[in-house]
Amino acid sequence: MGRRHVNALESLGLDVSVLSRRDIEGKKTYSVISEVYNDIVKAEDAYIVVANETACHVKSLRSIIAAGHTGPILIEKPIFSKSELIDFRSNCPIFVGYNLRFFQLVTILREKLSGSNIYSASFSVGQFLPNWRPGRDYSKVYSASLNQGGGVLRDLSHEIDLLLWLLGPIKRVAALTGRSGVLLGDSEDYAHVLVEGLHFGAATLYLDYLDKNNRRTLTFQSDRGTLTLDLIAGTLTENSSLICSMSADWDDICQQQHRAALSGESDVICGFKEGCEVVRVIEAIEESSETGLWQNL
After folding, report:
1. Taking burial as the number of CB atoms within 10 A of a residue's CB, which of 113, 114, 264, 267 is the most buried?
2. Do the Cβ atoms of 288 and 294 come closer than 8 Å?
3. Does the pLDDT value for residue 225 go beyond 60?
4. CA separation (Å) from 36 to 11, 30, 51, 207?
5. Structure pTM?
6. Could you tell me how far CA 268 lies from the centroid of its own chain?
7. Cα separation of 155 and 143, whole Å?
8. What is the spatial distance between Cα 67 and Cα 61, in angstroms, rounded to a whole number?
9. What does R_g of the chain's alpha carbons equal in angstroms?
Protein backbone atom coordinates (compact mmCIF):
# COMPACT_ATOMS: atom_id res chain seq x y z
CA MET A 1 0.00 0.00 0.00
CA GLY A 2 2.89 2.36 0.66
CA ARG A 3 4.07 2.00 -2.94
CA ARG A 4 0.54 2.51 -4.24
CA HIS A 5 0.19 5.70 -2.18
CA VAL A 6 3.51 7.05 -3.48
CA ASN A 7 2.50 6.39 -7.09
CA ALA A 8 -0.93 7.97 -6.58
CA LEU A 9 0.46 11.09 -4.94
CA GLU A 10 3.09 11.55 -7.63
CA SER A 11 0.36 11.15 -10.26
CA LEU A 12 -1.41 14.06 -8.58
CA GLY A 13 1.73 16.16 -9.10
CA LEU A 14 2.90 16.17 -5.48
CA ASP A 15 6.53 16.07 -4.35
CA VAL A 16 6.74 12.84 -2.35
CA SER A 17 9.34 11.76 0.18
CA VAL A 18 9.31 8.47 2.06
CA LEU A 19 9.93 7.75 5.73
CA SER A 20 10.80 4.08 6.04
CA ARG A 21 13.18 1.64 7.66
CA ARG A 22 13.76 0.25 4.16
CA ASP A 23 15.72 1.90 1.36
CA ILE A 24 13.44 2.45 -1.62
CA GLU A 25 15.10 2.66 -5.00
CA GLY A 26 14.59 5.94 -6.80
CA LYS A 27 13.01 7.70 -3.78
CA LYS A 28 14.38 10.11 -1.22
CA THR A 29 14.01 8.01 1.93
CA TYR A 30 14.30 9.11 5.56
CA SER A 31 14.37 7.11 8.77
CA VAL A 32 13.37 9.77 11.34
CA ILE A 33 10.39 12.13 11.05
CA SER A 34 12.38 15.16 12.26
CA GLU A 35 14.81 14.67 9.36
CA VAL A 36 11.93 15.04 6.92
CA TYR A 37 10.79 18.29 8.47
CA ASN A 38 14.28 19.74 8.81
CA ASP A 39 15.16 18.93 5.22
CA ILE A 40 12.18 19.43 2.96
CA VAL A 41 8.90 20.58 4.50
CA LYS A 42 7.27 22.82 7.03
CA ALA A 43 5.07 20.80 9.36
CA GLU A 44 1.96 22.84 8.66
CA ASP A 45 2.32 22.38 4.88
CA ALA A 46 2.77 18.60 4.76
CA TYR A 47 0.26 15.90 3.92
CA ILE A 48 1.29 12.64 5.60
CA VAL A 49 0.20 9.08 4.80
CA VAL A 50 0.84 6.42 7.46
CA ALA A 51 1.03 2.94 5.90
CA ASN A 52 3.07 0.82 8.30
CA GLU A 53 1.91 -2.12 10.44
CA THR A 54 -1.35 -1.51 12.34
CA ALA A 55 0.32 -1.97 15.73
CA CYS A 56 2.71 0.88 14.89
CA HIS A 57 0.04 3.44 13.93
CA VAL A 58 -0.39 5.14 17.28
CA LYS A 59 3.39 5.48 17.80
CA SER A 60 3.72 6.96 14.33
CA LEU A 61 0.90 9.43 14.93
CA ARG A 62 2.37 10.56 18.25
CA SER A 63 5.76 11.12 16.60
CA ILE A 64 4.15 13.14 13.81
CA ILE A 65 2.22 15.34 16.25
CA ALA A 66 5.29 15.77 18.48
CA ALA A 67 7.22 17.04 15.45
CA GLY A 68 4.75 19.92 15.19
CA HIS A 69 2.64 18.65 12.31
CA THR A 70 -0.72 20.36 11.80
CA GLY A 71 -1.61 19.26 8.27
CA PRO A 72 -3.89 16.41 7.12
CA ILE A 73 -3.02 12.78 7.82
CA LEU A 74 -4.33 9.67 6.07
CA ILE A 75 -3.72 6.50 8.05
CA GLU A 76 -4.17 3.04 6.59
CA LYS A 77 -6.95 0.91 8.01
CA PRO A 78 -7.65 0.04 10.73
CA ILE A 79 -6.72 3.26 12.51
CA PHE A 80 -5.56 1.50 15.71
CA SER A 81 -5.15 -2.11 16.77
CA LYS A 82 -6.98 -1.58 20.09
CA SER A 83 -9.59 0.87 21.37
CA GLU A 84 -7.48 1.76 24.41
CA LEU A 85 -5.32 3.74 22.00
CA ILE A 86 -8.25 5.89 20.85
CA ASP A 87 -7.64 8.41 23.65
CA PHE A 88 -5.53 10.36 21.22
CA ARG A 89 -5.56 14.15 20.92
CA SER A 90 -4.66 16.06 17.79
CA ASN A 91 -5.67 19.24 15.97
CA CYS A 92 -4.77 17.60 12.66
CA PRO A 93 -7.53 16.40 10.34
CA ILE A 94 -7.12 12.61 10.43
CA PHE A 95 -8.66 10.25 7.87
CA VAL A 96 -8.66 6.45 7.58
CA GLY A 97 -7.89 4.54 4.37
CA TYR A 98 -11.14 2.67 3.79
CA ASN A 99 -10.85 3.23 0.06
CA LEU A 100 -13.68 0.89 -1.03
CA ARG A 101 -15.96 3.86 -0.33
CA PHE A 102 -14.54 5.44 -3.50
CA PHE A 103 -15.28 2.53 -5.84
CA GLN A 104 -18.01 3.75 -8.21
CA LEU A 105 -20.09 0.59 -7.82
CA VAL A 106 -20.21 1.22 -4.06
CA THR A 107 -21.35 4.78 -4.78
CA ILE A 108 -24.18 3.48 -6.98
CA LEU A 109 -25.08 0.86 -4.37
CA ARG A 110 -25.30 3.52 -1.66
CA GLU A 111 -27.62 5.60 -3.82
CA LYS A 112 -29.80 2.56 -4.46
CA LEU A 113 -30.03 1.80 -0.73
CA SER A 114 -30.90 5.37 0.23
CA GLY A 115 -34.38 5.57 1.69
CA SER A 116 -34.86 1.79 1.69
CA ASN A 117 -36.10 -0.26 4.62
CA ILE A 118 -33.29 -2.83 5.03
CA TYR A 119 -34.47 -6.18 6.37
CA SER A 120 -31.18 -8.05 6.19
CA ALA A 121 -27.73 -7.87 4.66
CA SER A 122 -24.68 -10.08 4.24
CA PHE A 123 -21.02 -9.13 3.77
CA SER A 124 -18.65 -11.88 2.71
CA VAL A 125 -14.94 -11.72 1.88
CA GLY A 126 -12.38 -14.48 1.52
CA GLN A 127 -8.84 -14.44 0.14
CA PHE A 128 -6.13 -17.07 0.62
CA LEU A 129 -3.45 -15.29 2.66
CA PRO A 130 -0.39 -17.02 1.08
CA ASN A 131 -1.46 -15.57 -2.29
CA TRP A 132 -1.71 -11.95 -1.10
CA ARG A 133 1.90 -10.87 -1.51
CA PRO A 134 3.69 -12.93 -4.18
CA GLY A 135 7.35 -13.53 -3.41
CA ARG A 136 6.98 -12.92 0.35
CA ASP A 137 6.60 -15.48 3.13
CA TYR A 138 3.05 -14.83 4.36
CA SER A 139 3.89 -16.14 7.84
CA LYS A 140 6.35 -13.30 8.32
CA VAL A 141 4.05 -10.40 7.38
CA TYR A 142 1.90 -8.57 9.90
CA SER A 143 -1.32 -10.25 8.72
CA ALA A 144 -0.31 -13.52 10.37
CA SER A 145 0.66 -11.86 13.67
CA LEU A 146 -1.72 -10.74 16.42
CA ASN A 147 0.96 -8.56 18.01
CA GLN A 148 1.41 -6.63 14.77
CA GLY A 149 -2.32 -6.06 14.35
CA GLY A 150 -3.04 -8.88 11.93
CA GLY A 151 -6.02 -11.21 11.60
CA VAL A 152 -9.11 -11.06 9.40
CA LEU A 153 -11.05 -8.70 11.67
CA ARG A 154 -8.49 -5.92 11.20
CA ASP A 155 -7.05 -6.85 7.81
CA LEU A 156 -10.48 -7.21 6.19
CA SER A 157 -12.19 -4.49 8.20
CA HIS A 158 -13.30 -2.77 4.97
CA GLU A 159 -16.48 -4.85 5.31
CA ILE A 160 -17.10 -3.58 8.85
CA ASP A 161 -16.60 -0.01 7.68
CA LEU A 162 -18.96 -0.53 4.74
CA LEU A 163 -21.60 -2.05 7.00
CA LEU A 164 -21.50 1.00 9.29
CA TRP A 165 -21.32 3.48 6.41
CA LEU A 166 -24.12 1.93 4.35
CA LEU A 167 -26.47 0.75 7.11
CA GLY A 168 -25.75 2.87 10.17
CA PRO A 169 -25.05 2.10 13.84
CA ILE A 170 -24.91 -1.39 15.34
CA LYS A 171 -26.87 -2.35 18.47
CA ARG A 172 -25.13 -5.63 19.29
CA VAL A 173 -23.03 -8.46 17.83
CA ALA A 174 -22.55 -12.19 18.34
CA ALA A 175 -19.54 -13.91 16.82
CA LEU A 176 -17.36 -16.96 16.40
CA THR A 177 -13.75 -16.40 15.37
CA GLY A 178 -10.71 -18.62 15.35
CA ARG A 179 -7.79 -20.30 13.64
CA SER A 180 -8.44 -23.15 11.24
CA GLY A 181 -4.95 -24.64 11.60
CA VAL A 182 -4.43 -24.39 7.84
CA LEU A 183 -2.14 -21.35 8.07
CA LEU A 184 0.97 -20.49 10.06
CA GLY A 185 0.88 -17.57 12.48
CA ASP A 186 -1.27 -16.80 15.53
CA SER A 187 -3.90 -14.42 14.12
CA GLU A 188 -7.51 -15.47 13.52
CA ASP A 189 -8.11 -16.65 9.95
CA TYR A 190 -11.91 -16.72 9.99
CA ALA A 191 -14.76 -14.80 11.61
CA HIS A 192 -18.52 -15.38 11.51
CA VAL A 193 -20.50 -12.43 12.89
CA LEU A 194 -24.23 -11.81 13.45
CA VAL A 195 -25.22 -8.15 13.73
CA GLU A 196 -28.37 -6.43 14.96
CA GLY A 197 -28.69 -2.88 13.68
CA LEU A 198 -30.23 0.25 15.10
CA HIS A 199 -31.87 1.16 11.77
CA PHE A 200 -31.80 -2.20 9.97
CA GLY A 201 -32.93 -5.70 10.85
CA ALA A 202 -29.95 -8.04 10.76
CA ALA A 203 -26.64 -8.50 8.97
CA THR A 204 -24.00 -11.19 8.76
CA LEU A 205 -20.27 -10.80 8.25
CA TYR A 206 -18.05 -13.63 7.08
CA LEU A 207 -14.32 -12.94 6.75
CA ASP A 208 -11.52 -15.40 6.08
CA TYR A 209 -7.93 -15.86 4.89
CA LEU A 210 -8.81 -19.28 3.45
CA ASP A 211 -10.78 -18.91 0.23
CA LYS A 212 -8.68 -19.88 -2.80
CA ASN A 213 -11.43 -18.74 -5.18
CA ASN A 214 -11.40 -15.12 -3.89
CA ARG A 215 -14.79 -13.67 -3.07
CA ARG A 216 -16.06 -10.27 -1.97
CA THR A 217 -19.82 -9.78 -2.05
CA LEU A 218 -22.43 -7.57 -0.38
CA THR A 219 -26.13 -8.51 -0.53
CA PHE A 220 -29.10 -6.51 0.78
CA GLN A 221 -32.75 -7.46 1.19
CA SER A 222 -35.09 -4.48 1.42
CA ASP A 223 -38.58 -3.26 0.59
CA ARG A 224 -37.21 -2.52 -2.89
CA GLY A 225 -35.96 -6.05 -3.50
CA THR A 226 -32.48 -7.61 -3.60
CA LEU A 227 -29.23 -5.83 -4.37
CA THR A 228 -25.95 -7.73 -4.76
CA LEU A 229 -22.52 -6.20 -5.32
CA ASP A 230 -19.71 -8.53 -6.36
CA LEU A 231 -16.48 -6.61 -5.90
CA ILE A 232 -14.34 -9.31 -7.54
CA ALA A 233 -16.48 -9.60 -10.68
CA GLY A 234 -17.26 -5.87 -10.66
CA THR A 235 -21.02 -6.32 -10.99
CA LEU A 236 -24.08 -4.83 -9.32
CA THR A 237 -27.38 -6.71 -9.72
CA GLU A 238 -30.89 -5.77 -8.67
CA ASN A 239 -33.53 -8.51 -8.45
CA SER A 240 -31.31 -10.80 -10.60
CA SER A 241 -30.87 -8.16 -13.34
CA LEU A 242 -27.43 -6.73 -14.03
CA ILE A 243 -27.63 -2.95 -13.66
CA CYS A 244 -23.95 -2.04 -13.77
CA SER A 245 -20.59 -3.65 -14.49
CA MET A 246 -17.10 -2.19 -14.17
CA SER A 247 -13.63 -3.11 -13.00
CA ALA A 248 -12.07 -1.36 -10.05
CA ASP A 249 -9.31 1.06 -11.04
CA TRP A 250 -7.35 0.97 -7.80
CA ASP A 251 -4.94 3.72 -8.84
CA ASP A 252 -7.87 6.05 -9.53
CA ILE A 253 -9.60 5.01 -6.29
CA CYS A 254 -6.41 5.79 -4.35
CA GLN A 255 -6.12 9.19 -6.06
CA GLN A 256 -9.75 10.02 -5.25
CA GLN A 257 -9.13 9.22 -1.61
CA HIS A 258 -6.10 11.51 -1.49
CA ARG A 259 -7.97 14.34 -3.18
CA ALA A 260 -10.68 14.00 -0.55
CA ALA A 261 -8.16 14.09 2.31
CA LEU A 262 -6.35 17.09 0.84
CA SER A 263 -9.56 19.05 0.28
CA GLY A 264 -11.06 18.16 3.65
CA GLU A 265 -14.52 18.66 2.15
CA SER A 266 -15.58 15.13 1.17
CA ASP A 267 -18.49 13.34 2.86
CA VAL A 268 -17.18 10.02 1.53
CA ILE A 269 -13.76 9.66 3.14
CA CYS A 270 -13.64 7.88 6.50
CA GLY A 271 -12.94 10.26 9.37
CA PHE A 272 -11.23 9.73 12.72
CA LYS A 273 -14.40 8.97 14.72
CA GLU A 274 -15.69 6.56 12.09
CA GLY A 275 -12.34 4.76 12.05
CA CYS A 276 -12.43 4.45 15.83
CA GLU A 277 -15.97 3.02 15.68
CA VAL A 278 -14.69 0.20 13.46
CA VAL A 279 -12.13 -0.66 16.17
CA ARG A 280 -14.90 -0.72 18.80
CA VAL A 281 -16.91 -3.14 16.68
CA ILE A 282 -13.86 -5.38 16.17
CA GLU A 283 -13.30 -5.61 19.92
CA ALA A 284 -16.98 -6.34 20.57
CA ILE A 285 -16.73 -9.20 18.05
CA GLU A 286 -13.63 -10.55 19.83
CA GLU A 287 -15.35 -10.30 23.22
CA SER A 288 -18.41 -12.14 21.93
CA SER A 289 -16.30 -14.92 20.46
CA GLU A 290 -14.42 -15.30 23.74
CA THR A 291 -17.46 -15.26 26.04
CA GLY A 292 -20.11 -16.79 23.77
CA LEU A 293 -22.42 -13.88 24.59
CA TRP A 294 -24.00 -11.02 22.66
CA GLN A 295 -22.06 -7.76 23.04
CA ASN A 296 -23.81 -4.39 23.05
CA LEU A 297 -22.32 -1.37 21.33
Report:
1. 113
2. yes
3. yes
4. 21, 7, 16, 38
5. 0.91
6. 13
7. 7
8. 10
9. 19
